[in-house]
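--- STAGE predict ---
source: upstream dedup step, 1 unique chain passed
mode: sequence only
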Amino acid sequence: MRLRSFALALCLLACIGLSACASETPAEHAADLYAAKEMAAAPVQGNLPDYSLPPTQLTQAQHLASLRLNLHFGSEAWGILQLVFLLALGIIARMRDTAVRITRHRWLQGYIFLLLFLFCRTLLNLPLSLYSHHLGLYYGLSIQSWPGWFADAGKALVLEWLVGGLLLLLLFALIRKAPRRWWLVFWLAAVPIVLAGLYLSPILIDPLFDHFEPLALHHPDLATQLEHMGVPANRQFLMKASAKVTTPNAYVTGLANSKRIVVWDTSLTPGQSPSPEVLWMVGHECGHYVLHHVLKGTLLTLAGLLPLLYLCYLFLEWAIIRYGTRWRIPSQRDWGALAIILLAVSLLNTVTEPISNAISRQIEHHADIYGEEAIHGLVPDTQLAVKNACDSDGLRALEDPNPRPWVEFWTYNHPATGRRAAFGKAYNPWAPGMEPKYFKK
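--- STAGE serialize ---
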């Protein structure tokens, strides 16, 4: 009954997330129908009337989509299997024994155990990580050198160890003090921790991996347009992504006065005014900024974290009773219990992936609408700008025009590029009898 109740709670959270984005206008509804019909009528993984690739690039996109799908599910399955193997072979218990043997100080034990655990998992995941970067280089999506890639991976590992160690010590302190309620207390502590991380990330973490400058310093015309769309000039940044990738992009990050929009320099041409296609792309990000999507998505994730932690607690209790002796993990206070908790998280994330992706697609869809309405009057043809942006960006990123419906449903956190192009072409809230969603007439 408890499992059923929390399954219902997860479904309720999904409904809340989707309903928050569900107020569909007539113009939006008509464009959604148009996009759905176009994708249904076209061959799977084939070109669409509103988004098509040249024959050579279409073949590459189809092949790359298949490789990415296999890599996606292969990584998920391998992440689960490696935890099972590490537990079953007693490797987790040996890591715990090593940490306990080295020092009596519990906080040092936690950091030593976590270092051994992260290093082991990094080695096990390395072949898939190397292959993923190889694909980016092979298809021309990445230009980052292997030494640079390893440097970034090393920095990420150190950060995961330092920050993860603090969370590990907090988690096991709560397990010792509140063995039946640690999942609730840890969730209460996680809320301010996650919000603080969201605030600090663009200030402390992101600059470790990329170089940022004020957008107005290099592209004053675009900075002025972004202000028109609702983003103050001091919240606009340019990221030197061209040192690593070739694809265009932009994103919104941060919280409160660290909140900002970041545009990759691969999206822009120095010395030239932004094209209509670029204006729609950054208008989409302005939608995230103005509509507070980052904060709303984070709060929704935190709401979903509560039942997830409770299910982890139930799984941990069951696993220790059933396999604790075999795995040499006698109680949930044992450092090795971390592997069991992460196994539960991996299983639950795999099951709930379609729910979180459905919510994300809705959020991204509404940012598309905001972006299209924001550039109305700034470009000669709004619908054409969206379609051309999908064409050019999809070509550079080799995006599958028409993925299998179940693939989009399960793995896509954005609507498929073909769907976005068709919707953008058909969306016309300025027609007689229609009304814009965000920029009222």
